[in-house]
Amino acid sequence: MKDAMKEYQAYLFDLDGTLVNSEPLKAQALSMACKDYGVTVDQNIYKAVMGENWETVTGYFFQHAGISPSLSEFNLHFRTYYEALLSDQVSLNSGALRYIESLRAAGKPCAIVSSAASWMVEQILEDLAINHLFDVVITQEDVSKHKPDPQAYTLALHQLALPATAAVVFEDSSAGVLAGIQSGCDVIAFAHDFNGQNDFSQALQVIQNYDDLMPVQL
Fold this sequence. Notes:
With 218 residues, the protein is α/β, with parallel strands linked by helices. The protein has helices spanning 22-35, 54-65, 71-89, 96-105, 118-127, 151-160, 174-183; strands spanning 10-13, 110-113, 136-138, 167-171, 186-190, 205-207. The chain is globular and about 50 Å long.
């Protein structure tokens, strides 16, 4: 087994679920948006599709709700609820801020590599006032192929001017782990209540708290 605690030159983080507790909020917003169409859907069904592309996620909710709205229309309902929930409830996962600040203090570049839309990523980074901690931010609009395709991680590495062997990826979904692996990076998976059905067998390590990681030696 590789040394999970080795020091890398760069640290690449998925955002939703991996760094912040937004996945339960996303599930709640999806359920609330379905309610606008007169249907009650258990938000916990999101656990079955967490980490999939947005069309798959919304399609799964539509199937369970028995509705067929246009995606653009549904997204307006979803965004209204999700923005409000993020503003009130989004927070960093345990130990995440301390860990990233230790990386920055050690001069290590950090990146956000998310499949979420830019507005989602920007709002979370602004709400938590952590924009300044990341040298590179990659979102859905920056790539044509999405996780599990490695394009987003390859782009981040290109912008950091580093080879994959110099970086480690943090992810919380099967698709994200596979994207990181296929980019050539080591991957550490973050486990939480909404991703129990995801496959982390290829990850170097699975954590539930960033304090589980050895701190960077300053």
